[in-house]
Design brief:
Number of strands: 17
CATH topology of the largest domain: Metallo-beta-lactamase, Chain A
CATH class of the largest domain: Alpha Beta
Largest sheet: 7 strands, mixed
Protein name: Metallo-beta-lactamase superfamily protein
Order of helices and strands: HEEEEEHEHHEHHHEEEEEHEEHHHEEE
Low-confidence stretches: 1-12, 16-21, 365-390
Number of helices: 11
Shape: globular
Radius of gyration: 21 Å
CATH architecture of the largest domain: 4-Layer Sandwich
Mean pLDDT: 88
Distance between the termini: 39 Å
Organism: Rosistilla oblonga
Strand content: 15-25%
Strand order of the largest sheet: 1-14-13-12-11-10-9
Family: Belongs to the metallo-beta-lactamase superfamily. Class-B beta-lactamase family.
Helix content: 25-40%
Pfam families: Lactamase_B
Structural class: alpha/beta
GO biological process, one term: antibiotic catabolic process
CATH superfamily of the largest domain: Ribonuclease Z/Hydroxyacylglutathione hydrolase-like
C-alpha cells in the first residue's frame, strides 16, 4: 500500500458474496498492541506498524531462524515506524536474536520502506528481481512535476479540463521520502525457489497484478505470508502503470491466486499485509474474484454507450470521489477496461488522444469468450471508429 501509488484504499469489496465471508475466519481478532509482537504460530510473530494512508497500518512478520530473526516486510521509513518496530523486536531479541534477514514482498513503501535501514545494521535483504528494479528506479526519480507520459496517460483515460489541470498541478509524492536507500548487494529470489527458515521450508510464488513481481511465501506446514496479494476485508488495488497502459492487472492477479491455491488447503493460515490473519484462503480468493466480476457486470451495463475510463469511476466505486481520489483510482478503472477488452466484452474506440469504451456488439447467437489470460495488449479489440447508435 504505497504512499505514492496507493494512497487511498477505496475498493469495492462489498460486492463479494456475503455467504463466502462465513468461511473466512480470523485466527485472532486482537491486533498486537503498539510496540509489541503477537505469536501467531510456532516461531512466527505478528507486528502491526502505523501507516499514514489507507487502513492506517501494515503487518510485518518476524520469523525465528537458526541464527536470528528473518523479518518479512518492514513498514515505511519514518521515525514513528522505526520506533514501533524496534520496540517490538527488542522483546524478541532475548530469545531469537537480532534481525539477520529481511524479505520484501513488493516495492510499495509500507512494505520495503525500512529495508535499507536494516541493511545498514548488517541484515541481508531478499527481494524479487522486479521489486528490486522498480524500487531502485523510483528511489532515483526526483521529478516533482507530472511527466508528459503521465499526463498523456491521464488524457488517454479521459481526464480533461479543470480535473486535468488539477492533476498536472498536484506535486508527485517522493518515493524516497518513505523508502530508505537500498544497498548495492541484494539477494534475489525467483518464482519456485525455497527459503529454509528455522524448521520451515517456504516456497516463493512470484506474481503480478498488485505490484511487479509480488512475492507470496507458502510454508510446508500451511502458513501463507501473502503481502497484499490476498487481503481480508478489503480488495487489492490493481492499478495500470503509466508506462504500460495496455496492462491487464486483474488477469495477472487472478492467475497468481490460482497458483497460490495449488499450495494451500482449508487449514492454511493467511498472514496478510493488512488486517487480521485468517483461515479460508481459497474462499477469500473466490470472494475477491466475485467482487471484480460484480464490478465487471455493472460496467457492461454502463458501457451500453461509449464512455471513458474516468466516466466509469462512479459505476465501479458507487459514490462520489474527490479529485485526489479520482487522480489515484482512474488507473484501476483503466485496468477494468483492459480486462473486459481482453475478454472480448468491450471495444476501445479512439477519440483524438482519448479512448472511449463500449460494450461489444455481437451477432445473435454469438457467444462471448469468457477465458481470462494475462495478456497485456488488445489488438483484436481496438477500433478507430465510434459507434454512436447504442
Amino acid at each position: 500500500m504505497p504512499t505514492s501509488d496507493e494512497a487511498v484504499k477505496l475498493q469495492h469489496d462489498a460486492d463479494a458474496a456475503p455467504s463466502a465471508a462465513e468461511a473466512v475466519r480470523a485466527i485472532d481478532g486482537i491486533a498486537p498492541a503498539t510496540g509489541t509482537a503477537r505469536r501467531v504460530a510456532e516461531g512466527v510473530w505478528w507486528i502491526r506498524l502505523p501507516v499514514a494512508a489507507g487502513p492506517g497500518h501494515v503487518n510485518v512478520y518476524a520469523l525465528q531462524d537458526r541464527d536470528g530473526i528473518m523479518l518479512v516486510d518492514t513498514g515505511t521509513n519514518t521515525p514513528q515506524t522505526l520506533q514501533t518496530l524496534t520496540e517490538a523486536l527488542r522483546v524478541l531479541q532475548s530469545s531469537c536474536g537480532t534481525v539477520r534477514r529481511v524479505v520484501v514482498t513488493h516495492h510499495h513503501p509500507d512494505h520495503i520502506g525500512l529495508a535499507g535501514w536494516f541493511a545498514e545494521q548488517g541484515a541481508e535483504i531478499v527481494a524479487t528481481p522486479g521489486t528490486l528494479a522498480v524500487a531502485r528506479r523510483m528511489l532515483h526519480d526526483k521529478t516533482l512535476l507530472r511527466t508528459p507520459e503521465e499526463i498523456g496517460f491521464a488524457v488517454l483515460a479521459g481526464m480533461k479540463d479543470l480535473e486535468l489541470a488539477a492533476f498536472i498541478r498536484r506535486p508527485k509524492r517522493q518515493y524516497a521520502d518513505a523508502v530508505a536507500m537500498l544497498p548495492d548487494a541484494i539477494n534475489v529470489i525467483s518464482d519456485g525457489e525455497t527459503l529454509q527458515i528455522g524448521r520451515r521450508c517456504w516456497r516463493a510464488i512470484v506474481g503480478n497484478g498488485h505490484a511487479v513481481d509480488h512475492l507470496t511465501l507458502c510454508s510446508n506446514d500451511g502458513l501463507v505470508i501473502s503481502g497484499d496479494q490476498i487481503l481480508p476485508g478489503m480488495s487489492t488495488n490493481l492499478n495500470v502503470p503509466t508506462d504500460q497502459p495496455d496492462l491487464d492487472p486483474i488477469a495477472a492477479w487472478r492467475d497468481t491466486c490460482r497458483r497460490i491455491g495449488e499450495h494451500i488447503d482449508d487449514r492454511s493460515i493467511c498472514l496478510p499485509g493488512h488486517h487480521t490473519p485468517f483461515t479460508g484462503i481459497a474462499i477469500r480468493s473466490r470472494q475477491m474474484i466475485a467482487s471484480h466480476e460484480a464490478v465487471a457486470s455493472r460496467l457492461l451495463g454502463h458501457l451500453q454507450r461509449p464512455r471513458t475510463a474516468i466516466d466509469c469511476l462512479a459505476a465501479i466505486y458507487r459514490r462520489t470521489l474527490s479529485l485526489a481520489e479520482r487522480a489515484f483510482l482512474f488507473s484501476e478503472a483503466v485496468g477494468y477496461m483492459n480486462h473486459l477488452a481482453n475478454r472480448g466484452e468491450i471495444v476501445g474506440l479512439r477519440r483524438g488522444k482519448t479512448i472511449v469504451w463500449q460494450k461489444q456488439r455481437r451477432p445473435r447467437g454469438d457467444t462471448i469468450r469468457r477465458d481470462v489470460s494475462p495478456a497485456i495488449s488488445r489488438p483484436n479489440n481496438f477500433s478507430s471508429e465510434v459507434d454512436e447508435t447504442r
